[in-house]
Amino acid sequence: MRISIAVNRPFHSVLMANSLKSLNHNVSIYSAAPRRYFSGLDDKVHTRFVPAPILSAAYKLRLTLPGPLERFDTFLFDQSVALHLDGTELFIGWASQALDTARKAMRHGARFVLDRACPHRDFQDALVVREAERVGARMPKLAKWFRERQIEEYELAEVILVPSAYTVSSFPEHLQPKLLKAPLLGRCRFPESVRADRNSTFTVGVVGGNPLRKGYLYLLQAWRKLALPNARLLIRGGDFAGYPALQALIRSMPGVEHVGYVPDISDFYQRCDVFVLPSIDDGFGMALVEAMANQRACIATTHCGASEIMTSGKDGIVVAPGDAEALAEAILSFYEDEDFRHSVAVQAARTARTFAESRAYEGAMETLISLIREAPLGGALATEKKP
User: Fold this and answer.
1) Mean pLDDT of all residues in the chain?
2) I want to staple 297 with a disulfide (CB 3.0 to 4.6 A). Which of 34, 237, 304, 345 is the partner?
3) How confident is the model at residue 385, as a pLDDT?
């Protein structure tokens, strides 16, 4: 089968392309990113450069695009892919970037699959708006024209790839039959050795960019409540400019440290006694599985999709999102009981390995191809075959 993937930046397209190529399909990626940015991509997967001029210029100048410009550039990228796309049987487009290309592909008899790594955009938008109010941030309203394009993508797609049960639950009932769960994990790096002893200073680490979606407010509230002696909180990522409540919390506490770029993220995990992913919204959260693979005791919320592989109290602790009290109790349990922390960390590594060896994503791609081949064009899919 001739398969075309369109994505302006790499995201997890390497995992997708390699999985489909391993099934002996002819796979091409259309992207505004040069091939060198697709680390680990199978040599037999073709890449075609399609310009996204505003995004490319911002990347070179190391600028953050304002929302309206980023959305307009996404629209231009979609238009460009539509002009270049030819001879495909299955078109897989990234959510928000695929509408016009999908229309063209389907007019020429191709099937259309949408990849949506995050929850339904209305569900996600409501969460982010609520969080912005809580941290005193200004949240501009999303342009109506852009939302309408996103909703039409959902309706047009024959299959929507989503990474977790959490993401599945965010979609309305009429779209549920289209959803196919494909957990975003392929190869998972397991270090040859791990540091199992406790740091001289009890160290909690967190990784995440968007301060609103990653739940930093509740982690910082928990950290302030605990006021643990001889403890520190390491934050990898997260730009708190424009978030007054978060900045005030950080200034009010000693022992909170921002960590810059880490060439090998395993080095960051190994610095930690406990890893926390306090997400308000995380479609999957690969950092959680990575930390587990590094034999760290982990805490995550039910709004982190990857938490569904955990059994709370056995290989990690799972709490409700937005619950600073529960986060504090979970951190304290690892702080006070080193044997518990160690046993959870050891089991976490076993769970991560079992999950990685299950090849869940590759299995989802096999199911996808089967569904596309067996369903008539524009027809209902055989949902009972979905994992």
Assistant:
1) 91
2) 345
3) 43
The pLDDT, as a whole number, for residue 382 is 43
Which pLDDT band, with edges at 50, 70 and 90, does 380 fall under?
very low
- For residues 31 and 119, give the distance between their C-alpha atoms in angstroms, rounded to a whole number: 23
In this predicted structure, what is the pLDDT of residue 384? 41
Q: What is the mean pLDDT of residues 70-83?
A: 91
- Of 91-95, 100-104, 257-261, minimum mean pLDDT range: 257-261
The percentage of residues in the chain with a pLDDT greater than 90, rounded to a whole number, is 76
